[in-house]
Amino acid sequence: MDFPILAFQHVAKINDLSIFGGGVSLDIKGRDFTDLSAVLVNGYKSPTFVVLSDTRVLADIPATQIGVPIRTLTVLRSTARNSEDSVVSFEAVVPTTRVSGQTYLVQRVLKTLLTTPGRDIFRPESGAGLLSLLGPMPVDSAAAYGLVSLRVQTSVARLIADQVDDPSLPLDQKLSAVEVQSAEYSTADTSLDVRLRIIAANGSSVVAGVVL
Fold first, then answer.
1. Which of 89, 109, 115, 139 has the highest CB neighbour number within 10 Å of its CB?
2. Is residue 88 a contact partner of residue 106, using CB atoms and an 8 Å limit?
C-alpha cells in the first residue's frame, strides 16, 4: 500500500456528440482536446482517435460497444491532477515511488472497497466486496445506492479501525468519512457507476468516480 497503483486523470469537457461511419465512429466536440490520452466509451478505450483541433476529436467505438447505447463518454487528458473534473485509474507505476497524501488515502479506500472478503491472503478479514454487485441485479437506482452505501460503510469502519494502530499516520492520509454521491446500476450492460467523496481527517476531500 506504500506504492502507487492509481493515477488521477483530468477529464476534458464535451459539448456535443454525433455518430458517423455506419455507426462505428464518434465525432466529439468540446474543449481542451489538445493533450488527450484516451477516449472511453461506456468505460472501454477507443482503439483509435484523432484530434482535429482543440475543440474536436474523432474516435472509433470499441468493438464490444458497437450497437450498444452510449451511457458514458469520457475524454481523458494527459494532464495528471486531482480536481472535480478528474477520474482515477488503476495502473502500475514504473519506477515505483512511495505514495502519500490524498493519493494514498484514495488508494486505501478503493482497495478496501473493491477487495472481496477472504481474498487478501495477508488480511482475510479485509475487503467490502463491491465487485459482488456486478452481474444481473434486478434492483432500481435507490436499491443500488443502498447496497453500495452498505459496502462503503463497511470499508470506512475497517479503515478507521486500522488507523488506531498507526498513530503516526498524517492527517491527510487518515480517513474521516466517505460520502456516496451517486450510485447507478445499468441493467442493459450490468455495469455499476459510483461516485464517492473521500474526506480526510484534516478536512480535505477528493471525489473519485469508479465504473465497474
1. 109
2. yes
Q: 9-84 and 100-211 share one CATH topology?
A: no
Under 8 Å between Cβ of 61 and 26: yes
- The architecture that CATH gives domain 9-84 is Sandwich (2.60)
Q: What is the end-to-end Cα distance of the chain in Å, rounded?
A: 22
- Cβ atoms of 195 and 182 within 8 Å: the answer is yes
Neighbouring C-beta atoms of residue 134, cutoff 10 Å? 12
Report domain extents, the chain.
Answer: 9-84, 100-211
Distance (Å, whole) CA 94 – CA 75 = 24
| Whole-number Å distance between alpha carbons of 183 and 149 | 9
CB distance 70 to 50 below 8 Å:
no
> What are the pLDDT digits (tens) for 64-101?
899 999 988 988 886 554 444 455 554 544 445 555 67
Query: d(Cα 5, Cα 94) in Å, to the nearest integer?
Result: 10
| Placement of cell 464535451 in the chain | 14
- CA separation (Å) from 102 to 34, 82, 200? 27, 9, 8
CB 89 within 8 A of CB 74: no
pTM (2 d.p.)? 0.57
How is domain 100-211 classified at the architecture level of CATH? Roll (3.10)
